[in-house]
Model the fold of this input.
Amino acid sequence: MNARRGVFLDRDGVITVSLETEGKGYAPRSLVEFKFYDGTRESIERIRKLGFLPIVVSNQPDVANGLLSLSVLEQMNQRIRDDLGIAEINNCPHNSMDNCSCRKPRPGMILSSAEKWSIDLAQSWMIGDRDSDVVAGATAGCKTIFIDRNWKAETGEYADFRCDSLLAAVDLISEQTDSY
Done:
């Protein structure tokens, strides 16, 4: 049996709207702030129709920093599961001081999800709005797409492709890939 193809999606700034402060995007910390970008549901459905398994891989350092409870994070994850039909959500609840293998730019979340779902990383994609997303995807062996949200200090310079929305990213995947 052939391995599956996956599209690994960062959460904040890709499928959910980041909160902007001084040119930098931040994760929502409450369910009231937690909103999907327009076109997210359509994009996820198109990813599936192209023959890819959509998987969320997201750094959530606010958990380690005491700014987000695990219960609120799980409620956010449940909303993603319910509203988008995403089966796999892989969160890193650590901050940069924890030196874990799952926190992007390290590829740990991608690698563990790929193993669990028998995903061929060379035929897969990572979509993110930060350079750390792109580095994690490239290190794991995926093609990468940088969604440019005009955040300070995020360049997208190492990405294979760049665009301005998830819908545009899915268009790029469609153009670059033969569907099953």
User: Anything to note?
Assistant: The chain has one domain: 5-176. The mean pLDDT is 95. Helices lie at 40-49, 61-64, 70-84, 108-117, 131-140, 166-176. The first strand starts at residue 5 and ends at 9.
